[in-house]
Each structure stands twice: as C-alpha cells, then as structure tokens.
Design a protein that fits this description.
alpha/beta; Rossmann fold; FAD/NAD(P)-binding domain; binds NADP nicotinamide-adenine-dinucleotide phosphate
C-alpha cells in the first residue's frame, strides 16, 4: 500500500488526492489530507467571497472527493512550526504532498503601510470569510472613503463587498459580526487603484463586469486616466499584441468611462496609472494615500512622472497579491515565495528529496484560478507515481493517526466537520438566515467534538 499525506485541504490538496485515487498505476493507495483548521476546502471556504455562491458550490465537488473511502480528512493538525514537522511526516507516510498555498500578503514597502486603518486585503477577506484566526476588527468603523490598492481579482472582491448593501449580503454565509459591521458601514466611496493601465490589470472580465452590475453602486472611470495612454482613449485601436482577455477588460473600462453616474448610494472609482508613494496620517490613523502619477513606458510597464495625487481614505486595503510562507524543515525560495521543485518534486540543494512533493500556489506562486490547480496537482502526482516503487520500500507507521494523537494532536475527522456544518445551519436558523459560518476556534472545536462523540454516518 502507498500511504500519502496531503498537507492542506484547499483545491490543490483535494485535486492531488483525487489524482491519487483516480490513477490505475498503484491501485492500493491511502490518502490522509491534513489541515491546520478543523474545516476543509482552504480558500474555497476562506477566500472565495460570500456572494460568489456559484464558485463556493465547488465545495460539493471537493466534498465528493473527501468522502471517498480511500481518503481521510484529518483537521486540526498543524504541520510546521508548532506541529508535526516534515521529517516526522516521512516516518508516517511514504510520500507527503505539501499544498499549503500562499498564506501571507505581499508588502508595498512604502511609508505609512502599517498605520491603523491600513490593512491587507487578505485580513479583510479572512474577516468576512469567518476565518478563526482573523482578528476581531471592525474594518469599516468610522470610514467614509476606502482605497483598495491593486487591480487583481482580490481587489475586485473587496471593493465589491465594501460597496454591497447589507441586504445583498444577508442571504450569504457571511458571519454575523461582519454582517453587522457592514450593515452599519458608512463607506460611500471605494477607490480601486492600479499602478499600470487597464490592459495590464490582473482582474478577469467576468469579475470586473460584476462591479458594474451592483444594484447599490455606480462604477466610475476617469477619461483623463485613460487618456494617458492614447491607445486606450475612446475610439482608438487597442494596442497591438493585446490578449483577448485584456481587450475585453479594456472594452468594459471604456464603457464605464463613457457612462454617466446613475445616482446610486455608493461609488466605486476605478483608477489607473497611480503608483502608491506613501500612506498619509492624521490623528495617528491613515487619512489617505499619496500616489505618484505614472505613464506607460512602452514596454508594458510604467515610469513615474514626479506629479502626485492624494486620495482621502480612512480605510486602505492593500490587495497586491499573496506570498508563500516558509515551512520549517522545507527548503524555500525567498525571492519567488515558493518551495523549489521540479514538476512537483521538492528540491533540496538542487536534488529531488525522496517522498516530498508540492502542488498549488506553494509550487508555482499565487496565480491562476481554482481550476488551474487541477493540472498542477496532476503533474505532481505523476511525478510521485513515477517514484512510487522506490517510495514503498521504506517502512512507515501502521497507523499514522495514532502516532499523531500520541504526539498531542486532537484531530478533527470527517464526522467532526459534518457536525460543524450542522452547527452552522442551526446558527443560521436561530438568526433567521441560511447557514452562517462560525468564526472562532472554540465554537468550531466545540461543534466538532460534539459531532465526534456521536459519529455521523459517513
Ligand atoms: P494579482 O492577480 O497578482 O493582482 C495583484 C495586483 O496588485 C496587480 O494589480 C498588481 O499590479 C498590484 N500590485 C502588486 N504590487 C504592487 C505595488 N507594489 N504597488 C501597487 N500595486 C501593486 O493578485 P490577487 O488579486 O491577490 O489574486 C491572486 C490570485 O487569486 C489571482 O490568480 C486571482 O485571479 C485569484 N483570485 C481569483 C478570484 C476569482 O476568480 N473570482 C478571486 C480572488 C482571487 P501589477 O500588475 O502592476 O504588478
């Protein structure tokens, strides 16, 4: 039997497990999916915005993989600094596939970045997604204007959530505390700001268009921003060599620039060619962002002009990308924020490390949509299977779960997770809403333990 641990139960971890059980080369395979949290699904649960029900429904596909009898979900087990380490995992399993994503936000490296009121978009996302490690905070308290730095899909998500009315969010599973705060929010202006032009923006057209369809917000684009690149101005031919996706984005943005405001209660101002220079401070809190005006350099980049523009904001969300976090005991490429690997095989000092693999963002960096993880995981599993004969020669523990318990871990297994789901729908019922996420560790573990005491049928 080939025993494999997959570390991380987000899309890349589940797709890796699925690839392992769907292959025919090694029929006898057993997979343990370990997760630090008592809940599975990674960023599908804790990253996909609550109003993106269709993407969230992907959980149903991931669930059917986790319910396969050759796979066990083992939550509440940390791998790394405070938990079981890579070396110990190799005593328990023939192979370990790290699918731990990119857990941190990238930094801007400009003055004022850490002022109160300036937060990473990933913190904000964790808060409205009920991540149990999210700092209980009222992001929007006292803010009338917010600046979102970056024009990727995370920026679009957080701008949209800030601009939505509470009525639009109540039917979702957003936690009650965040819903209450967003209901009381007085944010009326959200500025989403890119340092380059619309053709270089990272957002996808579907997500961009969604902003324009919000019932409670007008989307505004300034012709003067677009005029900085003559090719973007109305009626001009798009720059040569532009991808179809960028062309579509450009069409949407030009359309908005030509559209008068509809008088909706909130405004999303999408800005371009503004590079953050510093965060401004008043009374010990952020009061705005100073941007340097940029112009295209003709090679897809921009150069500064020495002219500056200040945008007032009491809330600044930095949505400039995620970054992988080093795992103690595993090599790490600090420049790329990934684990060095060759098609998924972890490289130690340039040579493949037997039994250690990576998939997902920690393998290739934080890019692509959820589906990108499927071929990525498949490539890694192909490498693992090529090595399987060698790997199974090494003796491993008979029951890794017992060994984890002996080491002090309190695993939450599938019945525990099902009990959390059940507790969340009960919580929703008491609040007169649909299922509502539990947002704290004690609440999650209490529900899981109750469930594990009276195991539910698998
Ligand atoms: P991203 O797509 O890499 O976008 C990052 C943005 O930040 C870019 O506009 C980038 O501009 C800007 N930026 C980076 N450094 C900056 C700096 N120092 N100053 C100013 N701007 C800076 O990252 P993301 O939005 O975090 O998304 C991560 C991944 O998750 C993406 O693959 C995304 O598609 C995916 N995702 C998908 C969805 C969805 O499908 N609905 C939702 C959320 C996330 P430059 O281009 O100029 O560097």
């Amino acid at each position: 039997m080939l025993r494999v641990a997959v570390v991380g139960s987000g899309p890349s971890g589940v797709y890796a497990a699925q690839a392992l059980i769907q292959q025919l080369r090694v029929p006898d395979v057993r997979v343990h999916i370990l997760d630090r949290l008592p809940c599975p699904y990674g960023l599908v649960r804790y990253g996909v915005a609550p109003d993106h029900e269709k993407i969230k429904s992907l959980q149903n596909n991931l669930r059917s993989v986790l319910e396969d009898e050759r796979i066990d979900f083992i939550g509440n087990v940390e791998v790394g600094a405070h938990g079981v380490g890579p070396r110990q995992l190799l005593e328990l399993y023939h192979a370990v596939v790290y699918c731990v994503g990119a857990a941190k936000d990238r930094r801007l490296g400009i003055p004022g970045e850490d002022l109160p009121g300036s937060r990473s978009a990933t913190d904000f996302v964790s808060w409205y997604s009920a991540h149990p490690d999210a700092v209980a905070d009222d992001f929007v308290l006292g803010a009338r204007s917010a600046v979102v730095i970056g024009v990727g899909n995370v920026a679009v998500d957080v701008a949209r959530i800030l601009a939505r009315g509470a009525d639009e969010l109540r039917p979702t599973d957003v936690p009650q505390a965040a819903l209450g705060a967003l209901e009381a929010s007085r944010v009326r202006e959200v500025h989403m700001v890119g340092r380059r032009g619309p053709a270089q923006a990272k957002f996808t057209t579907k997500e961009l268009r969604e902003l324009g369809a919000l019932p409670s917000a007008d989307v505004l684009v300034e012709q003067s921003d677009l005029a900085l690149e003559p090719a973007y101005a109305e009626g001009a031919a798009p720059p040569a060599g532009l991808s179809a996706a960028s062309r579509r984005n450009l069409d949407v943005v030009r359309d908005w620039a030509a559209r008068p405001p509809q008088g909706r209660p909130r405004q999303i101002r999408v800005r371009f060619f503004l590079r953050p220079a510093e965060l401004l401070e008043r009374d010990g809190r952020v009061s705005g962002v100073r941007f340097e005006r940029t112009v295209p350099d003709g090679e897809g980049g921009v150069r500064g002009t020495g002219a500056y523009e200040d945008i007032e904001a009491q809330l600044v969300l930095r949505a400039v990308g995620y970054r992988g976090v080093p795992m103690p005991g595993l090599p790490f490429d600090d420049r790329r924020g990934t684990v060095p690997n060759d098609r998924g095989r972890v490289l130690r000092d340039g040579a493949p490390s037997p039994g250690e693999y990576v998939a997902g963002w920690i393998k290739r960096g934080p890019t692509g949509v959820i589906g990108t993880n499927r071929p990525c995981a498949k490539e890694t599993v192909t490498a693992l299977l090529d090595d399987a004969t060698e790997l199974t020669l090494r003796p491993v523990a008979d029951d890794p779960l017992d060994r984890l318990r002996e080491a002090g871990h309190r695993p939450v297994q599938w019945p525990g997770w099902l009990a959390i789901e059940q507790a969340e729908s009960e919580l929703g019922r008491t609040l007169g809403r649909g299922s509502v996420k539990i947002d704290d560790w004690p609440g999650l573990l209490h529900a899981a333990n109750e469930g594990q005491r009276r195991p539910l049928p698998r």
